[in-house]
Amino acid sequence: MTKVLYEKDGRIARITLNRPEVMNAIDMDIPQELAACVARANSDDGVHVIVLGGSGPAFCAGYDLTAYAEAEGSNPGVQEMPWDPMKDYAFMKQNTDLFMSLWRSYRPVIAKVHGHAVAGGSDIALCSDMIVMAEDAHIGYMPVRVWGCPTTAMWVYRLGPERAKRMLLTGDKIDGREAERIGLIHKAVPSDQLDDEVEKLAERMAGIPVNQLMMQKLMINQAIESMGLYQTQMIATLFDGITRHSPEGMNFKQRAEDVSWKQAVRERDQGTFDWTTNRPINAPL
Fold this sequence. Notes:
This is Enoyl-CoA hydratase. The protein has 13 helices and 11 strands. With about 280 residues, it is α/β, with parallel strands linked by helices. The strands form 3 sheets. It has a 6-stranded mixed β-sheet with strand order 1-2-3-4-6-9, with helices on both faces. A 3-stranded mixed β-sheet has the order 5-7-8. The protein has a two-stranded antiparallel ribbon with strand order 10-11.
């Protein structure tokens, strides 16, 4: 089954992440298929705007930790020691560039977020031009607590340094209401109004000539890129590899293998495990 769906609906292209059984978790195929769908929309003169969503209960729950964390041994995201930072960088930079196809798209992209857009899923959402969330949906990058750094680095450009630090020094998840309040997203609406709200916005954009949309997006993006976006993403992607191959990162990987990734993530997010000493916090020596 195709892991990213594409549909043209009048002047709107609809791209849908399609691994609903795992909350659209990112595997080896999704980045490539996502970028291919974006390219398809951009090659169609009849498409004016892209709506990006997720099938099933969530927009995207991040990278598939069953494959990348819980499975025993090495994989494309975790090498055997000693590790090669440039090999890891090449792998993750490719994924970052594929997510950034949304940013580079000549057609504006509206992300429609329900359920969760977390970890790598937040990277995908934040590469879009505008985000509309359900009020009860959640967004965040919890792997900053251990085993991750957001490679697209969009948090600081959307929020500024103070609020970006709040999110990335805590790993907190926030709901749609708070995401709108702090300026991370365009708008949050009740979940039963999400589809209608996105449709109104997409239809409003779809009435504008393609070249006008393209010029406005290029102009705004250029302002952000002049602030050093590419260089920041290079550092973030390198740091992401380090987080997964640091002593703490390797302890997280082993913990996921031993007790399941769900338990390891629960301990990470609740702050009950000391990843440096590799034991529960306050556990007797």
